[in-house]
Design a protein that fits this description.
Helix content: 40-55%
Order of helices and strands: HEHHEHEHEHHEEHH
Shape: globular
CATH topology: Undecaprenyl pyrophosphate synthetase
Low-confidence stretches: none
Strand content: 5-15%
Number of strands: 6
Mean pLDDT: 94
């Protein structure tokens, strides 16, 4: 009962007019969560999937338009082969198991990252989930798999270079808007709030272009322990910040 009351208290404090349109989360700490409990790392990844479910549910309930989560980085291929294989199977399980709920809640699935190197079974499950949820408009859930910010920029630069080569436009026409349109997040606003769990104080190659003006929030909690109350606390912290975007306090006061 106390936990429910605390959650309700946090919800009551939320300013629905000042919600971040886009939240990005680095879901870190699954392995350490399992190790501290003398469990296999796979148990931590399973527990992390439940934490993701809670985060998606809350964002959908309060009116967050876009949630982007870092599920598997380009660097994560360096992990032991059995763990990588388990994560790929878990990703398929998540996609197949959550589609019905996504459709029920009006959530559309998006994907960030390179499809190269992903197993065929993952690509198939991803394509089916995206097709099934394509018409949903309440919220966009982006899952970043085989994603790295530098890789994303490299892919975007290659695509623009090909267009210049083919005469579609000249180098002088390349500006921030053109680059943004070539990224995996094309058409979406940049994340206003980026959250990282586990106490690490870095963004680890995640949305390095898009996070230029993101408010950063770091939690000491490991991802499987990060619940709805923690997410609400992060959003309330965001709402208490003064986002100036290069302007002075005096200029802000006139708005």
């Amino acid at each position: 009962m106390a936990k429910a009351e605390q959650l309700n208290d946090l919800l009551a404090r939320l300013d629905k007019k000042r919600l971040p349109a886009h939240i990005a989360i680095i879901m870190d700490g699954n392995g350490r969560w399992a190790t501290r409990r003398h469990l296999p790392r796979s148990a931590g990844h399973k527990a992390g999937m439940e934490a993701l479910r809670q985060a998606v549910e809350l964002c959908s309930e309060i009116g967050i338009h876009i949630l982007t989560v870092y599920a598997f980085s380009t660097e994560n291929w360096r992990r032991p082969a059995d763990e990588v294989g388990f994560l790929m199977r878990l990703f398929i399980q998540y996609l197949e198991g959550e589609v019905a709920l996504m459709n029920e809640q009006g959530i559309r699935l998006g994907f960030l990252g390179s499809r190269e190197a992903l197993p065929a079974a993952v690509l198939l499950a991803l394509a089916q989930a995206q097709k099934s949820t394509a018409q949903n408009e309440r919220m966009l859930l982006n899952i970043a798999v085989n994603y790295g910010g530098r890789d994303e920029l490299a892919r975007a630069i290659r695509s623009l270079a090909l267009k210049v080569r083919d005469g579609q436009f000249s180098p002088e026409h390349i500006n921030e808007q053109v680059i943004g349109a070539a990224l995996d997040t094309a058409g979406a606003p940049d994340p206003e709030l980026m959250i990282r769990t586990s106490g690490e104080l870095r963004i680890s190659n995640f949305l390095i272009w898009q996070a230029a003006y993101s408010e950063l929030y770091f939690s000491d909690k490991l991802w499987p322990d990060f619940n709805k109350r923690d997410l609400l606390t992060a959003i309330l912290d965001f709402q208490g910040r003064n986002r100036r975007f290069g302007r002075t306090e005096q200029q802000m006061a006139k708005d």
